Sulfite oxidase (Neobacillus novalis), 349 residues
Amino acid sequence: MPKPSLIVRKLDPENKETPIQFIESGPIDNKLFFRRNHFSYPSLSQVSYWLPVNGLVNHPKLFSLEEIRMLPSRTVKVVLECAGNKRHFLEPKVYGEQWEKGAISEGYWKGVPLRDILKLAGIKQSAREVLVEGYDSGLRTDTDKIFTFSRSLPLEKAMHPDTLIAYEYNGQPIPFKHGYPLRLIVPQWYAMASVKWIRQISVIGSGFNGPFQSVDYVYYPNKETDADAYPVTIQNVNSTIQKPLNMEILNTGKHLIKGIAWTGKGVITKVEISLDHGKNWSSVEIGEPANHGYGWTSWTYEWSVTKKGEYTIMTRAADSHNRTQPENPFWNQKGYGHNAIDKIWVKVE
């Protein structure tokens, strides 16, 4: 039987989706984990790899990989979702990778809490943010200048015990294409925060304004101007129908509808389904909330259909912070954070 493979959106830099509709359960094997790159892959050597920690610290440090692996570790199950996931479905259309529903994956990440590394260096009182720079770099067409991919975290998020400098994924060294040898993992934030191929960590005393923080990964809600812009951070509550497939032809009888739901705040508390284009809603059976991690929640619904015809199936999720998927997506210039009610169409013959 053929096995699913990544869906290509771009070859250089490599951007590929997880075939989310064919994933039975998590964690996602690294070969099917979505790939999001702004530049070509960097050239790295483990032999000469060191991690500098500098800036507003009392004791600048230079860590070897062996030293990092010897520190107390944590393992967390995390959903990583590209901020542009589902951009393809936004209307009016916006430029950017036209991700459908597969710019999302989940798995177990093992590493050292970033706060432990920072405590060893001693954070100064004037510290405001923690800047993480990757090894990936290249030319930005909007400026004609070369930049490295760099992002900062507010001190509070950087010091969260589950914000990790990770070195393993699903019990194995992080694959090179997903950030080997060290990758930042920031649970509940969109995946742009989880910087790959960490080059250095700097504690800074002001807000970072690099292009991947002040230009990209910013919500611009107005079509003509940049007014009222604000940064992309926490994942929205969301859901995806995995089965049946969109535009699938079904027979009458019983069908198992299944999917996933996830959130960047708290846990999923409810998923509802509509089989009549949103006129009526029913609760579905949801799996155990991800109380011990930040993974997605699987859900199922048994549908008995006796009447032939065309059906619109819709799902909406809610979380423990009273956030619910909206009927319509929040339009913004770059198409981030799409979390409108999920929708597919099927025909019953």
User: Anything to note?
Assistant: The longest strand covers residues 129-140. The chain has two domains: 7-216, 238-348.
